[in-house]
Specification:
Chain lengths: 281, 348
């Protein structure tokens, strides 16, 4: 058999690389360069090489805020996956037609803009029109209060936002899984209720942890939910960065904070990758 | 950056179009009601008089717009021939030479403006002309707070049921209000110790504030439906809600409303400076100022006796109480220090 020249794949690979370089690496490099510039409150910024912007990260409350961001996106990611995985298992056992219905539903959830989702939840949780009013009407809540802004409201927003993404990532592998393993486990005496923990969770451990990490990084960058549904105490680094860069037109500080967040994210990702590998070995 | 580039390239297209037709001006103003009303009610008179068509575009929030103008200027482009900016953007832009110089001789109308509204640079040339003034006041939902507040101090009282809405940015005027109400004047803001005292006083509001807002739409919606009972908001927009029959009120407390000025600037790379000067001449006239007051609820910046506004019309857009002015020079001087202190106070 004649081997086909491997030119085409390389060309495609090279193109993808070029696109990455232009649209990802160059802006990233530009951001790193700007993070060393000298901000000028009277003007804009001066081209310079100072560490002042990075120094501010440690001298102030940015420290606490980044910790808070990591906690809330981590928690959000775990909740999303914990909710989406059972749903996907459930959906994968339905008839073709119903599966299609769920897929379309999840896809359309993905089409909604963050702002629309945020506003919808805002109304749902408001005391004048939403859930609190409904509970009052049912006689369950005497003096209803708005449920947002709160940490819980923000979490609901984050989970809603990530849910369809996680479900759609997990769906193909879950739908095609080898069901005979579950049957074998049941035949060999595993109580059906425990199949989920003893068989399904271990089988999908790798994909579940990688999708959790993906979600973690995704939620770290969400801006609308913390500002709309969260209290100031819940504002994440993304909010602070955009306040600095856009609100105060202090691009160097915004860029420096973004670079620090990038490094922190990479550390968290590498650490969890190492941890899962060690556990797997 | 992406938006800036798109805007910058549309600037090129517009500049080319401008050269071909010669008599077209691109004017940007804050998106939404402001820009729409200017385009629908105010610019047509200018076009009828001069034959210059106005292409009205919406601009984003001040600092974001400044960032875009700055990026466009680096590329030698002007996203608009004229732009409506607050004094902070005006000063910062002037510092880095972002604005074109204007000749007051070509803008006779500007003579009717109150003194100080034609901004001169160090060389004595004009670089900005006052456009309008607007107030930020103590707004309330009348279903929950029937009586109009008499003093800003009522903001600190225990009666809002945790339902206040306050702006997140430190230059909203709240710092000046606090200084006037509790510290005998804005002089306390001259030192950092003084600023810290003012911020500490504002921190006392925290248990009462359920919304620290960036997005005006969210505040307005929640005030109108009673989710919020009171807060700081624009007087002009609140007046529109009142005229729509919504249960809201805008009050000038005894210490005064917060006044902010907006100016017209011509970005340095605009090729239509002459037409822009004609525009500024038109916009500065008492008739135009009065029309803007009626149509948009903005406060005129020409002496009151030069306009034909009735007592009632004037009362709707301003107040005779001496206003509180945002101390822009302090906010600029203390820059990042102040912004971080303030944000820390809110978010910690």
């Amino acid at each position: 058999m004649i081997r086909t020249p491997s030119f085409a794949p390389r060309l495609i690979g090279g193109l993808a690389f070029a696109v990455m370089a232009i649209f990802f690496v160059i802006p990233l490099l530009f951001m790193i360069v700007v993070s060393f510039y000298q901000p000028d409150p009277m003007g804009f910024y001066k081209e310079a090489f100072v560490f002042e912007n990075y120094g501010k990260f440690f001298s102030s409350f940015y420290y606490t805020v980044s910790f808070r961001s990591i906690l809330s996106s981590g928690l959000g990611a775990v909740i999303v996956v914990a909710l989406a995985f059972p749903l996907v298992l459930f959906v994968s056992d339905l008839s073709r037609r119903l599966q299609l219905f769920w897929i379309i539903l999840l896809l359309s959830m993905m089409c909604l803009s963050e702002v629309i989702i945020g506003f919808a939840w805002l109304i749902l949780m408001s005391e004048s029109a939403g859930l609190p009013r409904l509970l009052e009407w049912m006689g369950l809540w005497e003096n209803p209060r708005s449920l947002s802004p709160s940490f819980g409201a923000m979490m609901i927003g984050l989970v809603f936002l990530g849910f369809s993404i996680v479900a759609l990532i997990l769906y193909p592998s879950v739908a095609r899984r080898d069901r005979s393993i579950e049957e074998a486990a049941v035949t060999l005496g595993t109580p059906p209720a425990l199949v989920f923990f003893k068989v399904l969770l271990p089988t999908f451990r790798t994909s579940l942890s990688s999708v959790t990490l993906t979600m973690f990084v995704y939620l770290l960058g969400v801006f609308v939910m913390p500002t709309m549904l969260g209290r100031p105490k819940d504002w994440t680094m993304t909010v602070i960065i955009s306040d600095k860069a856009l609100g105060d037109a202090n691009l160097p500080l915004g860029a420096a904070l973004a670079v620090v967040m990038l490094i922190v994210t990479i550390i968290v990702l590498v650490a969890s990758a190492l941890l899962t590998r060690r556990r797997g070995a | 950056m992406g938006i800036a580039k798109t805007l910058a390239s549309s600037g090129v297209v517009l500049a080319i179009a401008g050269a071909a037709w010669a008599e077209e001006l691109t004017v940007s103003a804050w998106g939404g009601f402001f820009e729409e009303t200017l385009a629908a009610e105010i610019y047509p008179g200018f076009t009828a008089e001069t034959g210059i068509t106005v292409n009205s575009i919406a601009q984003p929030e001040d600092s974001a717009w400044m960032t875009q103008l700055m990026a466009a200027a680096r590329a030698g482009q002007a996203p608009a021939d004229l732009s409506l900016v607050v004094d902070e953007v005006l000063i910062r832009g002037n510092e880095v030479g972002l604005w074109a110089e204007l000749d007051p001789a070509n803008m006779a109308g500007t003579e009717s403006l109150i003194d100080g509204y034609v901004k001169l640079n160090d060389a004595g040339n004009a670089f900005a002309v006052g456009a309008l003034a607007f107030y930020t006041t103590f707004v309330t939902n009348t279903d929950y707070a029937a009586d109009a507040p008499a003093s800003w101090a009522e903001l600190w009282e225990d009666k809002w049921d945790g339902k206040l809405g306050i702006v997140t940015a430190p230059n909203s005027g709240l710092m000046e209000v606090t200084a006037e109400t509790f510290f005998g004047g804005v002089e306390i803001m001259e030192t950092r110790e003084g600023l810290e005292q003012v911020i500490a006083k504002i921190a006392e509001l925290k248990p009462q504030v359920s919304l620290w807002y960036r997005d005006e739409g969210q505040f307005q919606q929640q005030l109108e439906n009673g989710e919020l009972n009171a807060g700081l908001y624009y007087h002009d927009v609140t007046m529109l809600s009142i005229w729509d029959g919504l249960p809201v009120a805008s009050t000038f407390p005894a210490e005064g409303g917060i006044v902010s000025d907006a100016y017209w600037v011509v970005p340095r790379d605009s090729e239509n400076v002459e037409a822009a000067e004609k525009f500024l001449d038109y916009m500065s006239r008492p008739e135009t100022q009065a029309l803007m007051a009626r149509m948009m609820g903005t406060t005129p910046i020409v002496p009151r006796d030069t306009m034909d506004l009735t007592e009632e019309e004037f009362a709707a857009v301003g107040s005779d109480i001496e206003p509180i002015r945002v101390q822009t020079h302090i906010h600029l001087r203390e820059g990042d220090w102040l912004e971080t202190k303030y944000q820390e106070m809110i978010a910690q």
